[in-house]
């Protein structure tokens, strides 16, 4: 895990250089990808509630549309942020009527999801202070109990917010496409085949996944 963070600071994993050396030693494809994209790094910023709220707002809409709705949502609470990220506060969201939330461009379903998310944080049903000592699956189970958060979203949270080193998101289209293009000459790849390829990356499967994303999109992913 990285150091403590604030809403505006960037935090990169302390294990990154070790992971790159491991991947380059164990996997010839990774050796090339690390060489090609080694200047870039995974990073996290922001608080857990804001990060998860943004993931809900962004579901099934374009990046531009999601950002516009997010900006209007922050505007309800007069939140000022250099990068329009927040933070969004649990109590702020809970005190606003659903109809008001709908007016910023949120669907009724997303309003329900956001309020359920806020309720889980407000009631202590998510144990943020315990996450550092909880294993990945325990955190995924806790997060997927929240309406609107599935396994993929929980895994992205583990990667981009908690910086967990060994996450393999087999439901991620980019991961499967990256394995197909880099290991199977573009042929279709099953989940079992993807898992077999990633065996060599452990205990840094997050980093292997990240470099495959970079092979498809050179710009660092932003969460």
Along the chain, the helix and strand elements come as HHHHHHHHHHHH
SS-derived structural category: mainly alpha
CATH class of the largest domain: Mainly Alpha
Number of domains: 2
* Number of DSSP helical runs: 12
Unreliable stretches covering 5 or more consecutive residues: 1-8
Nearest-integer average pLDDT? 89
Question: Helices, strands, pairings?
Answer:
Elements: H1 16-26, H2 28-37, H3 48-57, H4 63-76, H5 90-95, H6 98-102, H7 108-122, H8 136-143, H9 151-160, H10 173-183, H11 191-198, H12 205-216
Helix pairs in contact: 1-2, 2-12, 3-7, 8-9, 10-12
Features:
HhH-GPD_domain; Endonuclease III, domain 1; Endonuclease Iii, domain 2; DNA-7-methylguanine glycosylase activity; EC 3.2.2.21; Alkylbase_DNA_Glycosylase/TA; DNA damage; elongated; mainly alpha; 223 residues
């Amino acid at each position: 895990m990285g150091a403590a963070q604030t809403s505006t600071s960037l935090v990169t994993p302390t294990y990154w250089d070790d992971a790159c050396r491991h991947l380059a030693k164990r996997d010839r494809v990774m050796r090339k990808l690390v060489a090609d994209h080694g200047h870039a790094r995974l990073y996290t910023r922001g608080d857990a509630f804001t990060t998860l709220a943004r993931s809900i707002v962004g579901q099934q809409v374009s990046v531009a549309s999601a950002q516009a709705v997010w900006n209007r949502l922050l505007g309800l609470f007069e939140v000022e942020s250099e990068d329009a990220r927040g933070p969004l506060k649990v109590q702020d969201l809970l005190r606003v009527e659903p109809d008001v939330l709908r007016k910023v461009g949120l669907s009724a379903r997303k309003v329900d999801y956001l309020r359920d998310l806020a309720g889980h944080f407000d009631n202590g049903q998510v144990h943020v202070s315990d996450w550092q000592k909880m294993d990945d699956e325990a955190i995924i189970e806790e997060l997927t109990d929240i309406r609107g958060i599935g396994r993929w979203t929980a895994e992205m949270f583990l990667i981009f917010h908690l910086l967990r080193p060994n996450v393999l998101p087999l439901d991620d289209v980019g991961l499967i496409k990256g394995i197909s293009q880099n290991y199977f000459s573009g042929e279709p790849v099953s989940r079992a085949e993807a898992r077999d390829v990633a065996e060599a990356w452990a205990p840094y499967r997050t980093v292997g996944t990240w470099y495959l994303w970079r092979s498809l999109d050179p710009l660092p992913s932003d969460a």
